[in-house]
Backbone:
């Protein structure tokens, strides 16, 4: 085996900077960075230069937003990956922190600041542990009032410019949303979307005069477009309707410019529009990658965002309207030069019904033509997720060390329209697993790939897909890596947090009516079929997929003499959020893959 110049620890130590937020005067930007090993809040001048670390906790900070009128930052943090986020405020001048919420048994999801900085709105399941209600809190007094409690999973989508209204999104399923508007003066609640068409709805951006707002929607379309809701006529119309998903929007406070990101085959591109003519302003293009976290300065002269690509770790960038140019603001450290990293190739392969399945293929830069490549099939979570070619240090290490990596977006993935998204619902679930079989056939035809040495790897739903691939197509794979995946659909739905169950039943099937079917697609019930080694990782505090899902398949495999290993991290939930745990777990994954494939 060749001696590698860089080790896996060098890849895992690559840092990132994300989630920019402007100070009220626009001169400073707060952002999150994992320089310490977990995301913390940092501060940098809009002009660049040295960064200042503001927080230093053992737990990761999940979000941070400047108050619109004061040099204060609201941020969120949970313990041990349990997702029960609490809010805190950091004062820039005094460097002091005080809690905003103190309900450790409940989940809190931030909505937005009011434009005058006096209030916040958020959702929480504190009332009964299941339903997410909407609250408005006055920051100075800490008094919070319940403004919407009609049950279900509801998100607060922020205040109107005067602060008199709040928009609420109610998710009946992940693909069926409604908008409500709450009048905070009289408590009146109005349903803005009375028709029952199943549509998705995105965060609204209000015009300054409150005559309406822009938002994303796929009403009467396959793809999300950019819509404008006119409050006078109580109806919406499309402003941009490409045959691709419009994903993110952010408008200046004066309503003159709107930044829009579009999903182009997994990549995310940025365009900035003049709202009076909807002509694009941006004259500088990016290399292929992902743009997210759009944030305008209050004067509308600067747009901050996060950019990453397969070969470039995430950093904060800034666009100047006056110069019509963008530049990199943060420079997150990496010991490994960019030229070491590999850009994937996007391919499409036919499945059993002729459907073309997109997949990204990473190939090592150096490979002997005499030896075919061992391959890792890397399956995204969701199931309504999408593999996107942003920076992934683990994938880059795999490729650097000689593996090919293939990341498919099997049917049911997002980013390709709602018809594609629905192709794995309930009774169609196994069709997505069959897509893995046909991926293997596709790889067999590639002369560079050793089709006898292909492993499955995935997290969350990708963990389930890994287990399902091993159980239902056991002859195809050499091994599997399951990270926080579920092994039995029935026990998963019975034991997942109650706030998630209804949403997940709509995707997988209902315990009351589909139990037999759910049992028939559960890998745990076909444990004897699994012939190859399995490596399992799980967090003890996982509220989405309980640890019992990992424990039961591990114990059954050991009982019947199969090779399996289980790693449990007591301070993690539904991911490995801490660098110290990734530095422990990921080298063990590498050792496992080397033992199976090499």
Residues:
């Amino acid at each position: 085996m060749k001696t590698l110049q860089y080790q896996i620890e060098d890849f895992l130590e690559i840092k990132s900077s994300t989630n920019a937020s402007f100070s009220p005067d626009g001169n400073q930007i707060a952002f999150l960075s994992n320089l310490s090993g977990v995301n913390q809040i940092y501060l940098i001048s809009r002009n660049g230069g040295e960064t200042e670390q503001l927080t230093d906790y053992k737990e990761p900070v999940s979000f941070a937003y400047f108050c619109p009128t004061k040099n204060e930052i609201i941020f969120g943090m949970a313990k041990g990956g349990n997702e029960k986020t609490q809010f805190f405020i950091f004062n820039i001048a005094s460097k002091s922190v005080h809690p905003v919420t103190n309900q450790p048994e409940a989940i809190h999801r931030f909505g937005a600041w009011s434009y005058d900085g006096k209030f916040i709105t958020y959702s929480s399941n504190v009332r009964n542990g299941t339903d997410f209600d909407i609250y408005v809190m006055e920051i100075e007094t800490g008094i919070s009032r319940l403004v919407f409690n009609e049950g279900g999973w509801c998100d607060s989508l922020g205040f109107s410019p005067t602060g008199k209204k709040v928009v609420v999104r109610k998710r009946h399923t992940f693909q069926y949303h409604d908008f409500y508007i709450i009048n905070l003066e009289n408590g009146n609640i109005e349903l803005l979307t009375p028709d029952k068409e199943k549509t998705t709805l995105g965060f609204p951006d209000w015009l300054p005069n409150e005559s309406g707002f822009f938002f994303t929607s796929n009403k009467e379309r396959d793809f999300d477009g950019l819509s404008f809701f006119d409050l006078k006529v109580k109806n919406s119309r499309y402003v941009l309707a490409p045959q691709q998903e419009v994903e993110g929007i952010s408008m200046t406070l004066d309503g003159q410019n709107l930044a829009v990101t579009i999903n182009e085959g997994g990549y995310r591109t940025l365009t900035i529009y003049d709202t009076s003519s909807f002509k694009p302003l941006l004259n500088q293009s990016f290399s292929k990658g992902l743009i997210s976290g759009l944030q305008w300065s209050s004067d509308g002269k600067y747009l901050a965002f996060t950019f990453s690509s397969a070969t470039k770790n995430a950093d904060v960038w800034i666009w100047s309207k006056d110069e019509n140019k963008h530049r990199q603001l943060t420079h997150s450290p990496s010991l490994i030069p960019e030229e070491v990293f590999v850009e994937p190739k996007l391919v499409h392969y036919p499945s059993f019904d002729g459907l073309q399945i997109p997949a990204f293929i990473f190939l090592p830069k150096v490979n002997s033509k005499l030896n075919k490549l061992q391959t890792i099939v890397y399956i995204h979570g969701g199931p309504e997720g999408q593999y996107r070619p942003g920076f992934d240090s683990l994938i880059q290490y795999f490729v650097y060390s000689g593996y090919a990596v293939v990341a498919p977006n099997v049917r049911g993935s997002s980013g390709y329209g709602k018809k594609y998204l629905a192709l794995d619902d309930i009774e169609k679930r196994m069709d997505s697993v069959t897509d893995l079989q046909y991926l293997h056939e596709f790889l067999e035809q590639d002369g560079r790939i050793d089709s006898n040495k292909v492993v499955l790897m995935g997290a969350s739903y990708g963990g389930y897909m890994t287990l399902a691939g091993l159980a239902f197509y056991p002859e195809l794979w050499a091994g599997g890596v399951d990270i926080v995946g579920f092994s039995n659909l029935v026990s998963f739905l019975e034991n997942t947090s109650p706030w998630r169950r209804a949403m997940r039943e709509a995707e997988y099937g209902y315990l009351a009516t589909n139990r037999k079917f759910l049992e028939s697609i559960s890998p745990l019930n076909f444990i004897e079929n699994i012939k190859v080694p399995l490596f399992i990782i799980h967090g003890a505090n996982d509220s989405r997929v309980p640890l019992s899902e990992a424990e039961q398949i591990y114990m059954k495999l050991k009982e019947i003499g199969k090779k399996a290993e289980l790693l449990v991290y007591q301070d993690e939930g539904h991911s490995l959020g801490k660098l110290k745990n990734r530095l422990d777990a990921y080298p063990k994954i590498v050792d496992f893959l080397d033992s199976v494939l090499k």
